[in-house]
Amino acid sequence: MRTAVLLLVLIAQAQRSAPTFSSRSDLVVLHVSVVDGRAGFVGGLPREAFVVREDGRAREIAFFENEDTPVSVGLVVDNSASMQRRRDAVIAAGMAFAQSSHPADEIFTLNFNEHVWPGLPDGHAFTTDHDELRVALSRAGARGQTALFDAIDRALEHLDGGTQQRKVLIVVSDGGDNASRRTFDDVLDRALRRDVVIYTIGLDDPVAGEARPKVLRELAAVTGGEAFFPHKNEEITTALERIARDIRSSYTLGYVPDGDRTAGRRRIQVDVHAPDRRGLHARARSLYLPAGQQR
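Request: output the structure for the sequence above.
Response:
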């Protein structure tokens, strides 16, 4: 009995001492990917290799982690008519992403045309079951118009219910929007108030002529993700597998922002300097908007 009590005490102490972060704390959280000149992911760098600046001023890194931890991730899939010829490829790529991800990742899918609806059955906010994910990705056909910004807005809200501390969205679309009530600035501001990384897969349909790659590039760049524009269907799978590796290889940094909460958007820059002086590149979100502040 004494042994069991002692074990429970030790577990509780370990849980209290484990490093945690929260987008609702005073920390600004950054998920940083580091690549070398061959675009290979670089791990194992110390805290001292990173420099974080907010509006040009260096900030002390108060939190640092480089662990392969699970994430809450949403697959936001365009099901408008312009995506018809890519449907099967997107389903296959989504499953390849799941296979390459952390086994404990919790995933949800969100479909959209002029409407937005969940892929998982009622009562299932997230899943770790790959069979359930396959069914979710296959549930909708491609038809109708495009409410991209409404879908991203809904997905960001859905991510708030995720149990993992790291949050990711993957948006598969041509970037066009002809049916949303929300605007690009609406969803960008909402994303900037969260430590959500957005990756985008731009699938252009030359016949539809609705593609807006600039929108997809900006969403990814300001949140610390990456934009991909595959030309062939098989390249969609390659892009999603790379995203899975990126997520599992990233560093998490946190710093305390300036006390002034009225300055609106802040610019963030992350630099990395390898101890062996080799050339490295760091990618992280470039803007931050304090919660409660409007653009």
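Confidence is low (pLDDT under 50) at residues 1-19.
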